[in-house]
Amino acid sequence: MIRLINVEKSYESGAGRSWVLRRIDLEIREGDFVTIMGPSGAGKSTLMGIIGMLDGDWKGEYYLLDRAVHKLDNRRRVELHKQYIGFVFQQYHLLDDLTVAENLDLPLSYRDIPKAERQALVADALDRFQIVAKKALYPSQLSGGQQQLVAVARAVIGKPKLILADEPTGSLHSSQGKIIMDLLKKLNEEGTTILQVTHNDAWAAYGSRIVDLADGWIVGGKARPTDNIG
Asked: Following CA atoms 229, 189, 221, 52 in sequence, which dihedral angle do they give, to the nearest 10 degrees?
């Protein structure tokens, strides 16, 4: 599904060229649940931004579903992102002046989907994530865990093939974090490919593979047993 070949990112500084990512080769198959780990400054979020097409300033080759992303202009990359990718951020990124239902409708409004169908999809998402009672509330009226539930619901409402979760539980306490991770695991079991960044070993264990980054390099990776998760 995803193939990165010799992906690199750097910038010029007073001391010369500083590297953020170096010679990244990575393959993620459809249906995988992959965790990226590493210390602060390792390049984890930068790598997620490149895969999520939020960052276009890099070198190398990137293929998503056999499409050569590195050859596409910005408009085509945005279209590809909207079609296939859902993003979950640590800080939720909900729009404060929109209700829960309106936040869920937003990604659907970018597509050519009739209003009645969008309303049905929003209703289904509200029910699935058990937030029907919150649909008319604004983000400021929700707890952190509730906001992240809405953020996950918004990321998956368009049925993306790939979910990118960048520290999705970093602002939550452990019980709320487990709810989010259980949701991601269920989505993966239903066929959605998941790529997450986390510092938490317990959350990393939800995935089937770990990729370790350090100083912009992939320094290791391993399969992770998951039959003890629940």
From this structure: -130
Tell me how far apart the alpha carbons of residues 22 and 14 are, in angstroms, rounded to a whole number: 20
Give tens-digit pLDDT for 173-197.
Answer: 888 889 889 989 999 999 999 999 9
Query: Which of 133, 130, 162 has the alpha carbon at shortest distance from 149?
Result: 130
99-125 pLDDT, tens digit per residue, is 999 999 998 988 878 999 999 999 999
Average pLDDT over residues 153-162: 91
- CA-based nearest residue to 135, from 158, 91, 105, 175: 105
* pLDDT at 222 exceeding the cut of 80: no
Residue 218 has pLDDT above 70, yes or no: yes
Give the pLDDT of residue 13: 81
Taking the CA atoms of the chain, what radius of gyration do you get in angstroms? 18
* Rounded Cα–Cα distance for residues 55 and 88 (Å): 16
Alpha helices in 72-173 (DSSP H): 74-84, 100-109, 115-128, 144-156
Following DSSP, what letter does each residue of 188-213 receive, concatenated?
HHTT-EEEEE-S-HHHHTTSSEEEEE
Given its phi and psi angles, is residue 151 left (phi above 0), alpha (psi -120 to 50 degrees) or beta? alpha
User: What are the DSSP calls for 7-32, one per residue?
Assistant: EEEEEEETTEEEEEEEEEEEEE-TT-
Set out the domains of the chain in order of their start, with CATH numbers: 2-223 (3.40.50.300)
Rounded to the nearest 10 degrees, what angle do helices 144-156 and 174-189 cross at? 10
